[in-house]
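Notebook, p. 212. Picked up where the previous page left off. The plan for this session was modest: take the two constructs that came back from the sequencing core last week, fold each one, and keep the raw output in the notebook itself so nobody has to go hunting through shared drives later. Recording the first one now, exactly as returned: residue sequence, then the structure token string.
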Amino acid sequence: MSPHIPSHHYWPVTIEAFLKETAMPPTVFGRAAVRDPRLVSDLRGGREPGARLKRRVEHFMNKWRAERVSECAETEAAA
């Protein structure tokens, strides 16, 4: 976690950055990450995620990014 961001703001900020990076709609993100289309709106409203939810969200974002890097590498190798 970044030392510049208070812990209660870390997850919403991290998720907002991911949404901007990926252009993924908030409901799609929530459904794909944790099967909860209201996740982002709830976090924006102050919901405090538990440790398990945080792990699942982190895993989803890391996996999504890794898959995109892999796809880019395959595309470059084929060119």
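Okay, moving on. Second construct, recorded in the same format:
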Amino acid sequence: MRLEIEFPLPVEPVLRRLEDSGHRAYLAGACVRDWLLGDVPEIWEILSLALPGEIAGLFAGAGLGKFSISAQGGAVGLKNRHYSCEIVSLSGGRPEGERDFMRCLEEELGGRDFTVNAMAYSLKDGLVDPFLGRADLENGIICCVGDPNRYFAENGQAILRAVRTAALLGFQPDARLLRAAIEHRETLAAVPADYVGCELRQIFSGCGHGLSGLIRQTQELLLTILPELIPMVGFQQNNRYHVHDVWQHTLAALEAAGCDEIVRFAVLFHDIGKPYCYTEDGDGTGHFYGHGAVSANITDQVLGRLGFDGEIRAKITELVKYHDVDFKESHRSMRRWLNRLGPEQMRRLLEVRRCDICGQNPQLIRERTEKISRFASILEEVAAEDTHFRVRDLAVSGADLIKIGYTPGRGLGEALRRLAAMVEDGRLHNERASLLEEASRQLVVDTNICS
């Protein structure tokens, strides 16, 4: 596929204003990459020899529509309702004599991370591509500008950026880049945990259906930043439902996942507790009783370490906790689950369960995935009815439970959902006194378990 710059460029008036004023102007970096791919960049980066003060003066009252203009360091930001661009001055306070702009431009591009981000474009000269970024873009490859060993030797964040760029574009890491990243993976230890978490979220939100393949390629890197996954590698399950060890099963399950990052993370962590729950019966068949709860506990700790926000952390952990439940094909059962999770999270749980099954013994998949499909149909029927009993229908509120000893947070919400499920099942009357009595009893039970 031959990629070309398509016209009209949204920021063409900005480029022409600079050029007509005697200042060379080039689009550069990720915006060139994205426009070649047919995407509209969030920010257009423009390189010029014009000084920041000159740039601001050129666009104040330039007759190009209403702009907001901001300046920081050697860059000037321009923003209107159509686009946002950042004009970066390469002059650094012009040196004496004529500066070789093309040499300056290539030096600037040579400092970029990957070849697909090291292209420039001007209305006059067209595409400037000294590192063959367009060819890599057309071939779907992420390559470093220059020697990847030099780039990664002391820069663990750069390794994560390489994987993230591959994931978001759906590209493959170049073989040299991959070898260098794995060789220097010890530098990942110095990367702050919250930075790792941010990069992982972007990786898991991209890649289309190629996430599992990317993880297979870069698993040494993933296991370095998530050492909690290591016990899964090579751990045999010794069960007729499984033909893979726990780690390979997880990767196979990820192959079946869509692009919902919450589902993807839940699938990644769903069996992380299995190595700690393994038992064998008399004939040597392996079992993992209670591994959902153990996996959820480990997942919660990992996501907390990585700085995931409370909401997404709770949703992922919840899916891991319930991923192995035995669903009953009844509207009554579905109403209970909807009270506990809500429609969106329940759909995710069924998707996690389907992925889990798809990563198991191929000979035993069909009947069980068909059951998940039937349960999904029941979910939509019940959700469409909108007659199931909900937390908001309870005769008590969260404030009432706080008065008897509950604390605000996830536990309070779980207690309310548990009460709603009991009312839905007919095990409890929706009366204030009965609800508070049951809530008090559950509070004592939970406190005893935790003590």
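Notes on construct two before I forget. DSSP finds 21 helices and eleven strands in the chain.
Flagging for discussion at group meeting.
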